[in-house]
Automatic annotation (TrEMBL):
Name recorded for this polypeptide: steroid 11beta-monooxygenase
Species, as recorded: Salvator merianae
Family that this chain belongs to: Belongs to the cytochrome P450 family.
E.C. designation(s): 1.14.15.4
GO CC annotation terms, alphabetical: mitochondrial inner membrane
Gene3D superfamilies registered for this protein in UniProt: Cytochrome P450 (1.10.630.10)
Positions that bind heme: C449
Any Gene Ontology biological process: cortisol metabolic process
Amino acid sequence: MGSLGRLSLSRSFWSGLPCCQLPSPAADARHPPPKVQPFEAIPRSSRNAWLNLYQFWRNDSFQNFHYIMERNFRNLGPIYRETVGSHDSVNVMLPSDAAQLFQTEGIFPRRMGIDAWTAHRRLRNHRLGLFLLNGEEWRADRLVLNREVISPAGTRKFLPFLNTVAEDFAGFLHRQVRKNTRRLLTVDLYQDVFRFTLEASSYALYGERLGLLEDGSPSPENERFIQAVQTMLETTLPLLFVPPGLMRWVNHKVWHDHLASWDTIFTHADKCIQNIYQEHCLGEPRKYSGIMAELLLKAELSLDAIKANITELTAGGVDTTAIPLIFTLFELARNPQVQTALREEIKSATAQPRELSQVLNDMPLLKGAIKETLRLYPVGITVQRYPMRDVVLQNYCVPAGTLCQVGIYAMGRSPKVFEDPECYNPKRWLKKDDNAFKALAFGFGARQCIGRRLAEAEMMLFLLHVLRNFKIDTVSKADIKTVFGFILMPEKPPLLTFRPID
């Protein structure tokens, strides 16, 4: 809080200075500060943009992008330039540089656009949602959505919905265990956790259950939606570096698979939206029934704006929550002492009936466990900003409007930032150390992930109910190899063993 306050107070002072006149930390006359170097002096990973892209395609290097960035930081230092196809960026990895970018983001922060997503919306005549918007239109939508999705008051309303689904998931696991005469369950849980996150996020967004945790396979419609989300993420990564118009000629199948997956996502979301809209038009008195119903009731956004933003939340709230849960379960399985400590904290926090928000606030170690998972396995491997004015990063002058990326995967595993970085230690987040701009999995500033509180609550309630009911072990305690498919995921999900707690 103190460091953020100091950053805010200094904003007007810093913004009035030209880039190369920014003051450096105090130094005595014997050691004058080094001269700020020009943009062109920043180390480069390589110079031929299209050759780089060709090599990425040829060597299938996209899935190792996080490892490549980590290697580049080791070889080139904490700042370097990278050019791949149409993608040109300055990459940094230290919290101090993230803080500098925060200072320069202005009232309309910009993140890296995804041209393929925007092209789909324009081809299908859909309005852009919060993820793709910029400027005044972004800010207007964001201010309304903040109240319903990320504010404490808005979060408290949908917590019971998430809690119900988390309880049901624990019941689902118990039913699977009872089918085994050994009274345990060893399973690759990825698809089941995926269904949990879709069920929970849909319930919070639309106020309706999909029935994904019932025995038996999901309906064909829900299966199509699940597959569409996965295909959309897989096809986004190669499309990031090539303009969509060119991609239609370079790789026809990837482009059309991408369009078809988004069409399926929009069809699924539109069906849910129509159900809620019809109930809303009846005008009957009702209790809280989800985020979308609240947006319709308050009528601060147009119907097209609500549909665009709810669809993006629907698509973004599934894999991006399911995968961190898989990583967390794995780390708890191979760190039983952490698992035991969390179970004790949960037992204490739930000893007396209280509001869910109070229960969650009384579990700092569980919050730390989620932060620790996202430090080691961030969903997105970078956070992007376009500074609104010139900025000095690592003593190089970076012009306004340059795409800057904070490499949060590399940051999370750097001994320059974290002590013993390979160790899974949730208690590191409970210490009084300066953790400013070290936990960036959800971004920072006004453009941090709008679904942050929804995702955090979903993960905490899931872990609360699973840990209350089961002890977790893993067949293999070896590190999981990860691949980058627009989001970071395990190359092969781990096998986990669940034993009921009597």
